[in-house]
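Residues determine shape. We examine one folded chain.
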Amino acid sequence: MRIPFLSFLLLATPACLFAQAKEKVIVLSWGDMIGSDQYRPLDSPEAVAEAVRAWKAAGISKVLFRVDDFRLLLTHELFITKGYQRWYDATRKAWDTGILKNAVDSVKRAGMEIQMWISLYDEGCPPKVLYSDSVPFPWQSRFSRENPQYLAHDRSIDPNGRKYQYGHLEMAYPEVRRYSLDVIRKFSDAFPFDGVFLSVRSHSPPPDHADQFGFNEPIVREFERRYGKNILRQAFDLEAWRSLRGEYLTAFLREVRAHLAPRGQKLSIGVAQGDHIGPPIGNMRIDWQRWVTEHIVDDLVVGHHTLERATYPQRWQRGYGYVQNQDEHVGLPPIEQAVREQYAPLCAKHGVKLYVDVPLGNFHRVYDDITLGTGSEPADRTEALVKLLEGLPGLTGIVVDGRPYVRRPKS
């Protein structure tokens, strides 16, 4: 998305809630630059150095550097077809030649903060599942292949008839939380990142219904202990169930923070706008208020969501039942209103930095068809939104795309 970078400063108390300059923060999806006609891939020390110089000259203060490509390389079974061979070769070479360490060191030497961006709900699918409804899924984590019982599953009582939500491990299992932390540590412990930026975006196909999955045994057992209802057999309070699922995500965040804090590393998280996680995961509650008031996270990035319609653009019938859906503007006020009335006052009160993700927010995306097509974000509406966000008190900053700073030279 072609918009100028903006900067921000988080204020310490609600009494200080007045507009100030915003920090300059970028998201950098390393793998998306491979094979791009527009952007130069960061596949050599020279390319990294050029990008760092450009970011520094633009006044960038923080880089959210995506490590998911290397996560796939290290922890997943890869089903490489011709369309993904170039990505695999470049990623393998970059890992073997130490490009990630070079990037982290280079950004830090330039005086910028760098956090590792890693996905929590993106374990992939077997190749029988079509990515974007068009090609065999090219990756699946070895952990989810070997332990399918830990994937979120539907309400089927008979295990033989269960459907599983590929890509989405259920955090109610201690084994899942240990595995997920171990994956994070492969990067946070091995490289001098300033922090960890957790993303809830996912490449996985969306469910048919937003409450279709999440009936795993630990959830069933704990819900019955608390409320006396068997959610596999009885009617029950949907919102209480959604909140219970979300409690285990909060528990995981506490465990991640407990590991990072002694190392002096920050914990950040990017979530969709609202109190529910949204597509393609479902209606699980995201208790961002608790994360802020208990200072479980240092930074909260709002609007960081999947763009499910753009990822799966050829679906004649869309999933339904979402309490809140940023993709379809369901159940949500305008983002500037939400920041002003909900997010900013609480974050300022508790000293948590607040950001809005513009490139992955797509707050004004429009479509030519009611279900088909990737849609587009009108530039004038994005520019107008940015101006609104610039003036909002209590907003620490606006996150934008780092790739336009490393465009290929025009021939």
